[in-house]
Amino acid sequence: MAGVVIIVFSILPMSPALSRFTRLNEEQKALAVSLAGTLSLATLGIGIGAAIGSQSILFDGFFTLISTGMTSLGMLVSHLVTRPENERFQFGYSRFEPLINLFNGLVILLVCLYALTTAAMALAGGGHRVDAGIALWYEIPVIVVCALLYRYEAAMAKKLGSSLVDVDAREWLVDGLLSFGIGLGFLAALLMEGSRFERWLPYVDPLLVVVLSLMSLTIPLSVIRANLKEVLFIAPDAMSRNVAEALEVMLPGNGVLGHTASVAKSGRTYFLDINLKIHPDSPLAGVRAQDAFRDALCRRLGLDETTQWLSVCFTTESRWL
To answer: Which residue spans traverse the membrane (predicted)?
Structure first.
């Protein structure tokens, strides 16, 4: 997928938009590819859904349209988090990342709940028939595009360690599953035509929306749960264990009489605040020894000190712990 994108951009004339694309970093390029895909599929889905009166295809199109807005916000945040801290944002911009992901998950959740409600109302009202043949021909290429973009975004998320691209990949997974389910439903509708089950055809389209909405709820809920922890600064279990294990190894023999450790994560940035109460004659009493301790702790935890927040304070008084 990435190769196709590169070939296309190398063949087309260098317009200002393409020139800007080449200046983006890898994360922003992945989101830009996703944005182009969502715009195309959203326009197609809403157009065909409205033309044949299919609630399920309209839901699919609007779901993709919502993804377009979320991907645009993701690109903005991707640009922000690369900027250095300043007087206004003295801890940098990393906290924008979980905020946008949380907002993203909430919007997708609301879309699913709205679609579920309207579909249930349609079922109660007797349903409606749609042209299953046209709908099926629409869904097949959409499923292929969603699968390709999901694989591309998931690979880029793993490569870059980006939660923004990871959430975007999940959106493509949901969209692909929706399209696959809708396609199966319309295939079943085609088989029902002219059979003794034909009287149930008006219920196929709204029933598809109900089933797919319920299936889709798990992904926004998982996104909300993960990012709400970061917004609330809840300690991440894995890093908390790593810090505890590292201190257990490094503190003995250094005259440390007590310590506290606080850990939080926001986006791609960890915030570690460690306070050590040391004996006045501790080997860590000197500034150089303290710097060496910080460096050793940073390396043991696998942290990049240029992008992570690590504060290790040394004191001889318990009140500063």
So the answer is: 29-50, 62-82, 102-123, 135-152, 172-191, 203-224
**Model confidence pLDDT, tens digit, residues 31-72:** 888 888 888 888 888 888 888 888 778 877 877 777 777 767
What is the block-wise mean pLDDT of the chain (321 residues), using blocks of 10 residues?
40 50 76 85 86 80 75 73 76 80 85 83 80 82 90 90 82 81 82 83 83 81 88 88 93 92 87 93 92 92 81 91 84
**Architecture of the domain made up of 237-320:** 2-Layer Sandwich (3.30)
Domain spans, the chain: 2-231, 237-320
Q: What is the pLDDT of residues 186-231, one digit of tens each?
A: 888 888 888 888 888 888 888 887 887 887 788 788 889 888 988 8
Cα(315)–Cα(321) distance, integer angstroms = 8
Looking only at the bridges linking them, the beta strands covering 256-266 and 269-278 are: antiparallel
Task: Tell me the CATH number of domain 2-231, given options 1.20.272.10, 1.10.760.10, 1.20.1510.10, 3.20.10.10.
Answer: 1.20.1510.10
Residue 224 to residue 313: CA distance in whole angstroms:
34
State the DSSP string of 40-87: HHHHHHHHHHHHHT-HHHHHHHHHHHHHHHHHHHHHHHHHHTTSPP-S
Q: How far is CA 104 from CA 111, 163, 167, 223, in A?
A: 11, 12, 8, 8
CA dist list (Å): 21 to 31, 60, 76, 77, 140: 11, 28, 14, 16, 30
Q: Which residue has the tokens 């409205």?
A: 50
Among 78, 81, 98, 96, CA closest to 230: 98
- pTM of this structure: 0.68
Distance CA 241, CA 239 (A): 5
